[in-house]
Design brief:
With 109 residues, the protein is mostly helical. The protein is built from four helices and no strands.
């Protein structure tokens, strides 16, 4: 349930960002570029909610899958990706047309 709540939380944040996007379009810009708008803080809130849901999913999978090395590796890699997703939420990407920044490079990595 927590994993599903994380997805819904993220989707709600994206919809709220779209309503005050200031001209950004989902079909032409990265979703991360919504963080540069007036409600940019909503992207970080959505990303962290989604990461919390992924963390719950990873822990649930670890507990429910059969024993073995494959379970350990699969869950560890999924949780590593979740940590990367949360880390990307800490760093904003530059606005469209702006010069590349260190924060944007970290976000895209």
């Amino acid at each position: 349930m927590a994993a599903m709540l994380g997805v819904v939380w993220f989707a709600a944040a994206l919809l709220a960002l779209q309503s005050g996007s200031g001209g950004l379009d989902w079909t032409r810009h990265y979703v991360s570029q919504f963080a540069n708008g007036p409600r940019g803080w909503l992207l970080a809130v959505g990303v962290f909610g989604h990461a919390a849901g992924n963390l719950a999913l990873g822990l649930g999978l670890y507990r429910s899958l059969g024993r073995g090395a494959l379970r350990h590796w699969a869950c560890a890699l999924f949780l590593l990706a979740t940590a990367g997703f949360a880390l990307a939420g800490l760093f904003t990407v530059e606005a469209p047309g702006a010069a590349p920044s260190a924060s944007g490079a970290i976000h895209r990595s």
